[in-house]
Amino acid sequence: MNLFRTLRGIAFFGLAGAGLSGCLSAPSYSNTPEIEFRDVKVTRIPAVNGNVGRDTLEFVLGFRDGDGDLGLGPEDLAMAPFNTKTGGHNNRGYSYNYFIQPYKKNAVTKNFDFFVTPAQPPFPAGIAGEYDSQYPRLNGADGRAAPLKGELRYKLPLSLDGTVFAPGQVFRFEISILDRGLHESNKITTSEVTL
Fold first, then answer.
1. Rounded Cα gap, residues 172 and 94, in angstroms
2. Which one of 74, 127, 156, 160 has the lowest number of neighbouring Cβ atoms within 10 Å?
3. Is 6's pLDDT higher than 80?
4. What predicted TM-score, i.e. pTM, was given to this entire model?
């Protein structure tokens, strides 16, 4: 009798598990990536023995994408449109898929102003998007289209030598990403960071 109850219990849980797996479906996300700001972490390397101080900013974003075509691998960068040098965000080509625009806090007005690298002879002033970068493929080598959700971390090192960035300056950053279908995500703004 106990054996029969045990077998009946196993059969019940087996059928219930099979029924639940049939009810679960893949999440429905847009094929245009969506991101959310989670954190910005600062790692400080102080100036020692004549070396310039440095801060490394680590941006942490949550992401989701309906077809999971996020990131670029070497095979992508060898083909059009990812091997071009014009077009795309900031007209710098499609090999960039992580866009970072700094905004510097004005000490007088307390507003955040659009920031590009100031001119440093013999170099001209910077350009918008010069902090754009690249993140690798996130969905593995097989590249199957499937919903993807997770966390994207990116580190941006900054030299605090005073020519571009200096200790005490306050920044925040506007960030967006691009997928391989050339869909650009929403833009997020980070919290303030004091260098």
1. 25
2. 74
3. no
4. 0.80
**Which amino acid belongs to residue 157?**
P
Q: Which of 124, 139, 147, 157 has its CA nearest to residue 53?
A: 157
**Is it the case that residue 78 has pLDDT exceeding 90?**
yes
114: nearest Cα among 124, 129, 99, 133:
129
- The sign of the CA dihedral 109, 111, 113, 118 is positive
User: Per-residue pLDDT tens for 7-39?
Assistant: 444 444 444 444 444 555 667 889 999 999 999
Strand 98-105, strand 34-45: pairing? unpaired
Indicate the length of the chain as a whole number: 195
Nearest partner of 184 among 29, 27, 28, 35, judged by Cα: 35
